[in-house]
Amino acid sequence: MRSARRLVPPVVFACLLLAGCKSTSLGTSTPSGSGSPGAGAPGKAGSAPALAKGAGPQRHYTVQQQPAPGSCHYRYEHGEPLEDPKCTPGAVSPAVTQANLKSTICRKGGYTSGVRPSAYVTGKEKKLNAVSYGFSGKMSEAEYDHLISLQLGGDPNDERNLWVEPADPGHKDSQGVNNRKDPVETKLHTAVCAGRITLAAAQQAIVTDWTTALSRLGLR
């Protein structure tokens, strides 16, 4: 009786062997998503370190200790003054979150006026901070600025969130405080309250570089 087994022709065997090798190769290939990650989608917080949290709004503010004299140094981008990230890394208020925007920074009637420290406190802090930064210009022409503004949930009186911001390039004396950072903050606030970007994304963009914050988030 003839055996039921049939020999596999050499050509077929070679094809099967090659197919098996190809299958194994595909099984160990690099996933398509394992390449270098691209930039995050506009309006979403990336993988940057979490921002520091301050004490939040207080009934009675006290003058905060400032960095050592001359220890802070301004940076400049396109002629615009930027803070020293070692001295002024920014700090957020724990009272403002993505979940309570409507009852805090986005509520009608104003949020910032109710949490802003008095001029008595900030006036003393401004003089001390000017020494920290070695600022020698006219104090009336410089703004004691919240790096993360109050309308973006910045902490009201944390020393890490306040700095003496010099006047913009081309600023004329006796014009008072008039910084280009302010309208950037307003546009970010509008976008946050409209749901176009997240609160965290706006805060991180302003800390990274306020001069590029709008373009980084696709708001220009």
Account of the 3D structure:
With 220 residues, the protein is α+β, with helices and mostly antiparallel strands. The chain has helices spanning 10-27, 112-115, 119-133, 181-193, 199-208, 213-216, and strands at 52-53, 75-77, 80-82, 91-92, 143-146, 162-165. A two-stranded parallel sheet has the order 1-4. Strand 2 (75-77) and strand 3 (80-82) form a beta hairpin. It is globular, with a radius of gyration of 28 Å. The model is unreliable at 1-41 (pLDDT under 50).
* Number of separate helices: 6
How many angstroms does the end-to-end distance come to? Answer: 86 Å
Poorly predicted ranges: 1-41
Main sheet: strand order: 1-4
Could you give the count of β-strands? 6
Biggest sheet, open or closed, and with what strands and sense? 2 strands, parallel
What is the mean predicted local confidence, pLDDT?
Answer: 82
How large a portion of the residues is in β-strands, by DSSP E? 5-15%
- General shape: globular
Query: Which sequence of SSEs, written as H and E, runs from N to C?
Result: HEEEEHHEEHHH
Radius of gyration: 28 Å
Q: Which percent bin holds the helix content?
A: 25-40%
Give the helix/strand class.
alpha+beta
Keywords:
disordered N terminus, 220 residues, globular, single chain, 29% helix
What is the topology?
Layout: H1 10-27, E1 52-53, E2 75-77, E3 80-82, E4 91-92, H2 112-115, H3 119-133, E5 143-146, E6 162-165, H4 181-193, H5 199-208, H6 213-216
